[in-house]
UniProtKB/TrEMBL annotation:
It comes from the Bacteria. Keywords: Bacterial flagellum biogenesis, Bacterial flagellum protein export, Cell membrane, Cell projection, Chemotaxis, Cilium, Flagellum, Membrane, Protein transport, Transport. It is a peripheral membrane protein. The keyword Protein transport applies. Belongs to the FliJ family. This is Flagellar FliJ protein. The lineage of its organism: Bacteria, Bacillati, Bacillota, Bacilli, Bacillales. It is found in: Cell membrane. Pfam families: FliJ. The keyword Cytoplasm does not apply. Transmembrane segments: none annotated.
Length: 147
């Protein structure tokens, strides 16, 4: 007689939901890394542009050229500001996905614990039946020996 848990499909479903939540979190973390990498690229681009502007001031440069560089610097600053918002949003999504994963992990643990309790009950019942059978055999043997 083997143990069959009547809610095994639910346990399996909860396990699959947890796995899926892990994948979703992994995707969100990948997106966050991409956003941070993009932000770092923009900051680096700004630093390079700043160095270019410093070098340009030491040489003779036309005002229109300097205005163009300043305009581009403002554009990069705007992109950096937007990218900071993107990173903030990506961090928010990651925290939501982490919370979702923790809920799924707790849910799975509840069902797994219920399965373990049912299996322990089953094993205790089987052990009791075996002990009862052994007791019955011992009683019958004792009765035969006493006649």
């Amino acid at each position: 007689m083997s143990f069959r848990y009547s809610f095994q499909q639910i346990v399996d479903l909860k396990n699959n939901e947890r796995t899926q939540a892990e994948w979703i979190l992994s995707e969100a973390m990948g997106q966050l890394r991409n956003e941070e990498s993009s932000l770092n690229g923009l900051v680096e681009q700004k630093e390079n542009l700043h160095k270019e502007m410093i070098q340009a001031t030491s040489h003779s440069v036309t005002i229109s050229n300097m205005l163009m560089m300043q305009s581009y610097m403002n554009h990069v600053d705007n992109q950096i500001a937007r990218k900071h918002q993107d990173v903030k949003q990506a961090k928010h999504i990651v925290s939501e996905k982490q919370e979702h994963l923790s809920v799924k992990m707790i849910d799975e643990k509840v069902w797994t614990k219920a399965r373990e309790k049912a299996q322990n009950k089953f094993q205790i019942m089987i052990a009791k039946k075996e002990q009862d059978a052994l007791d019955e055999m011992a009683t019958n043997r004792f009765r035969r020996a006493s006649y």
